[in-house]
Amino acid sequence: MEGKLATNTDDKKTTTGEGGGQFKKRDASWPMVLFYVHLNILGFYGIYVLFTSTSLLTIIFTAVLTLLGILGETVGVHRLWAHRTFKANAPLRVFLMICQTLAGQGTIYSRVQAHRLHHAKFRTDEDPYYSNQNFLYAHVRGNLFKYSPQQEELLQKLEMWDIEADSVVMFQKRFYVLLYIVLNVLLPVNTPFQYFGETILGAMFVGFWLRSLIVVNVGNLVNSAHFVWGIHKDFKPSDSNSIFIITKSFWPQFHYLLPNDYQSGEFGDYSQGIGSAMIRVFAALDLATDLRTISSVAVRKGLTQALDTDRPIVECIEEQVKLEENELPANHFLNRNKFM
């Protein structure tokens, strides 16, 4: 198991060494392949149905469910459960669990586990989302393959005690199939058909397939957005007109270095996104507490300390953050001038 993974586009190939390539080999998940094929074909057809024969009530209802599903993936899975950027009381956790089930991307437990491995092995061969390859690999290909035996071992070594102690997450994990059928299939399809006078085609193609196409792709950006908004060492603005369309930022560098800041958005922004705003709303309603954030002052002091002491940068910054937390006002998340 000491052979290195070869750099190629075929996950089936093995490498030299005593079984190293076989240990790292990923087999295709054919159910997921078939799902993605149907998702794209039927989802895009849903766009046609949307503009030709769908009622306004169905469009509004589907849009609400779509936004809730995205909220469940970004604020729920990503910021709350994967990175613990804030604490949520039981009613909020139940609400976010329902929202995440509407996303239809697997259980909270499996999503958190995969995302934590993504961060732990970022830009290495062990990353399940191919962060060392390109956008399509991370956005699509990573979801079409099973974990390799090597990745399965790494997943078992991840710290998941906090997730396993969350009764809401474990309830969803236990009853996910039932919850998926009721919330992600019956609710969005049966409601327009039964109560809005929608046709079965409109309810199915818009309520399920088009909504799923949008939510799945937005949810996948949690693992692939660094290719869109990140500044990579080989990025050359003069070689592409994308600089006029996409705003490049240092967001991924910050997020992958210090992922526990609730204001670090999934889509290349910081503090201004809907996710950050919703967390502040939840906090104002006393549903969320202990919002963790990192000020520029703490980062600057931490970098200075790291240079002076030759200690790890993250360790020094986190030390400064702990010192700063005692000085932050209880309602710092509502201070528009400094934190919004």
From TrEMBL:
<protein>
    <submittedName>
        <fullName>Acyl-CoA desaturase 1</fullName>
    </submittedName>
</protein>
<keyword id="KW-1133">Transmembrane helix</keyword>
<feature type="compositionally biased region" description="Basic and acidic residues">
    <location>
        <begin position="1"/>
        <end position="15"/>
    </location>
</feature>
<dbReference type="GO" id="GO:0005506">
    <property type="term" value="F:iron ion binding"/>
</dbReference>
<dbReference type="GO" id="GO:0004768">
    <property type="term" value="F:stearoyl-CoA 9-desaturase activity"/>
</dbReference>
<dbReference type="GO" id="GO:0006636">
    <property type="term" value="P:unsaturated fatty acid biosynthetic process"/>
</dbReference>
<feature type="transmembrane region" description="Helical">
    <location>
        <begin position="175"/>
        <end position="196"/>
    </location>
</feature>
<keyword id="KW-0560">Oxidoreductase</keyword>
<keyword id="KW-0275">Fatty acid biosynthesis</keyword>
<keyword id="KW-0276">Fatty acid metabolism</keyword>
<keyword id="KW-0472">Membrane</keyword>
<dbReference type="GO" id="GO:0005789">
    <property type="term" value="C:endoplasmic reticulum membrane"/>
</dbReference>
<comment type="similarity">
    <text>Belongs to the fatty acid desaturase type 1 family.</text>
</comment>
<feature type="transmembrane region" description="Helical">
    <location>
        <begin position="208"/>
        <end position="229"/>
    </location>
</feature>
<keyword id="KW-0443">Lipid metabolism</keyword>
<dbReference type="InterPro" id="IPR015876">
    <property type="entry name" value="Acyl-CoA_DS"/>
</dbReference>
<keyword id="KW-0812">Transmembrane</keyword>
<feature type="transmembrane region" description="Helical">
    <location>
        <begin position="33"/>
        <end position="51"/>
    </location>
</feature>
<feature type="transmembrane region" description="Helical">
    <location>
        <begin position="57"/>
        <end position="77"/>
    </location>
</feature>
<feature type="region of interest" description="Disordered">
    <location>
        <begin position="1"/>
        <end position="22"/>
    </location>
</feature>
<keyword id="KW-0444">Lipid biosynthesis</keyword>
